[in-house]
Hints:
Layout: E1 3-8, E2 14-21, E3 28-34, H1 37-47, E4 53-58, H2 65-72, E5 76-80, H3 96-109, H4 120-153, H5 158-175
Parallel strand pairs: 1-4, 4-5
Antiparallel strand pairs: 1-2, 2-3
Amino acid sequence: MYYKIRWNGVSKESIAIAIAESGREEPRFWGTIPHKPEAVRKWLKQVGGNENLEVCYEAGPTGYELFRWLTGMGITCIVVAPSLIPKRAGDRVKTDRRDAIRLAQLHRAGELTSVYVPDRDTEALRDLVRAREDAKEDLHRARQRMIKFLASSSDFSSCTLEKAVDQELQEVARSTEI
């Protein structure tokens, strides 16, 4: 028996699983398991081995740790970007069950494109860069709010306001310990 497994609904708490066996039968929803390495190992023992197993899952906010668990256990795994999953026109209902079955079907048919999975260091660097970009955007928005607030409640010119806000923000930044 040849399995193509779809792990969908990968969240912090659980993983939804659908199985598409070789052949033309409809994929079936297996159920959900906790998002923990021990639960994944236990499920693999229930299924009965790694040799005829291929797994795919949709990339999401939980990162690539599931990919690392599975490949570390000797299982072939791909990660698919949500934007690269073919969608039927008008199919807007999203549930873990439906998504898992559909992805298992597409994976068995070979219609999914995998994405690059970075190593831990590269993933950490990406997270750091994104956090820095978010902080810079937050600072810019706070600065703009401050300028707009001061402009509406005083009679300073916009040039004077921007200098005053910049000086105030610099003082706050110097006094803040990280």
